[in-house]
Amino acid sequence: MVLLSLWLIAAALVQVRTSADGQAGNEEMVQIDSPLKRKKEYELVTPVSTNREGHYLSHILSASHKKRSTRDVSSNSEQLFFNITAFGRDFHLRLKPNTQLIAPGAVVEWHETSPVPGNTSSPVNDHQPGSAPERIWKTEPLQTNCAYVGDIMDIPGTSVAINNCDGLAGMIKSDDDEYFIEPLERGKQMEEEKGRIHIVYKRSAVEQAPVDMSRDFYDRGGHLDWA
């Protein structure tokens, strides 16, 4: 599972480019109004769900979306397809479940240091003598139905690892570079029908100093009405 921080967003001026031909995933491009603009290392995009041929199905991306339609899943239930347009390229992702990443029945545990003198009945894990014991205060099942791997269709030698529990988050390795993608905002699964903005950046951008552009970000109507 790839969880990427959002500190990589630079001071941006969103320029929305819409086209009447309805080509999937091409509804929004972004230019960065900063020194990084010249390097073309960041773009904001709105990914879409497509069929195998790349035809638009919907803007719904997250596996947990309550309105996820059966048409968003291909005839082969083991595959998903998404289209992402960034850096002047169309990335048509072909994905299948990553069954080897997480074992069935896996859980997430939250621990806290909690000395409990004289209380031997507490669920304490004390693995190191002399150290403060840890108490498990929360446990919940780990989602295993939203980790996918795959490739970019029609481009040999590419690889993709994506998690769609909350938008699309992961890595795209193309024939010329490596890219990371993640939602601009977390927890917006129920607001995806009109499109959800994601940030795409190159691996080389990770080495850049972080820049906070949140005060200068303006969304100038980056959603298309797919009739």
TrEMBL record:
Q: Name one Pfam family in it.
A: Pep_M12B_propep
Signal peptide location in the record? 1-22
Record carries keyword Disulfide bond: yes
Q: Which domain of life is it from?
A: Eukaryota
InterPro entries, sorted = Peptidase_M12B_N
Keywords from the named record: Disulfide bond, Signal
**Residue intervals of the Peptidase M12B propeptide domain:** 43-152
Record bears the keyword Translocase: no
What is the name of this protein?
ADAM metallopeptidase with thrombospondin type 1 motif 3
Q: Which organism is it from?
A: Phyllostomus discolor (pale spear-nosed bat)
